[in-house]
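Researcher: For the record, we're logging two predictions in this thread. I'll number them. Prediction 1 follows.
Model: Prediction 1, sequence and structure:
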Amino acid sequence: MASYPVRLVLLSCICPLVFFSALFLFSFISSGLYLFFFFSIVSICCCLLAFTLSHKQTPATPDTSASATTNTEVIPSSSSSSSSPRSGKLTYDVFLSFRGEDTRKNFTDHLYTALWQKGIHTFRDDEELVRGESIAPNLLKAIEESRYVIVVFSPNYADSAWCLDEVAEVADCMKEMGTKVLPVFYHVDPSEVRRQTGEHFGKAFEKHQKRYKKEPNKVQRWKDALFQVGNLSGWHLQDG
């Protein structure tokens, strides 16, 4: 994937800010709508900058096969205990993990569009999966074949066993394959994610403890994954 200059990323984010500021000054949009666009654009700009800078620090490889070889070499021998071996193949630049009802039509949609406009091949479940296919295996495969994963933790993220299975797989790939993970804490506190406490993650896990009473290892795997990913440096967004 091509690397994009930091100046180009900044310019592409500043232009819409100027545009929406002008609309607000001339009273074409309300202050609430302006703040929504402002914080969304700033948040996406931060994600793009981090992705661009971290990608520049990664040595470039001449072709996909060389890249796959590099990633295969970092898999520890303990991964042989997994039910299926990691392929080491890289198909996507970014995998987006998010709770649809929280962010699909706002933050995640803006971020997804911005990444594609920069030529960053991004996987989002509703875009890539063929209708009628078995979804879970395809999602797990897409995570394994992604160079980066952006996890958007939102208020209802932990309510979904599907999302928790995703983040558990992300944590495994981070440990076994060196997958780079960038967390976004969207209207949730990072400590709530790490410790599974508070109004959102705490209550969600109270329900999971009861529902999966006979599968304690499953719930513990989710908790371990949330601690690992939630402990990474990311973005804490409370507005927008």
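Researcher: Logged. Prediction 2.
Model: Prediction 2, sequence and structure:
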Amino acid sequence: MTIRPGVTLEITDLQVESEGERVMEGHSVTLTCKSRCSLTDTPTFIWFRNTQTLNDRNKKLILPSVRRENAGDYRCAVQGHNHTSPPRRLNVILHRPYFRRLSVGITVACGGLFIIIIIFIIKRMQMKSRTRSASHEYENDGFGNDTYTALELNTRSSDLYDTLATVHHEDTRSTPILKSSAYENLPAPVLNSR
């Protein structure tokens, strides 16, 4: 298109083109401001994301590493002209390996916690089992039996009998008095004089 002197060129056919509407997070994308009119001089372009004016002034807007914040509606305009392009939507897709790594990390942490809990429960059960077994041995140590054997003084050594008789003296001058009625009729012990 040739421009004659005194004629004002009005740019009304601007469009933003991109490689796609969806871009993976971390990838680059290039947006281009195009017009069907051929512009003879080197115009200055103005880029907008949603309602924000961007600093880039070139025909191509390059986003080298797209982030979620870059998502939105992009428009362009030529400086000195009132017309802006219709919006072109840019969607940023979150990078899946990030979520995969995150889910693997959470799974490993939960698995480790589960194993620790199982080990704790097993150790606790073993401790309870040992405690029960020790107290059961104590209970069956003869103290819980209902059968008792009477002390037969005739079959025991005289030293043991002398010791028992000495313990039960009420008076050192009298004969020993045994507290059990089973032994009341036994003859008085013969004390060895040494």
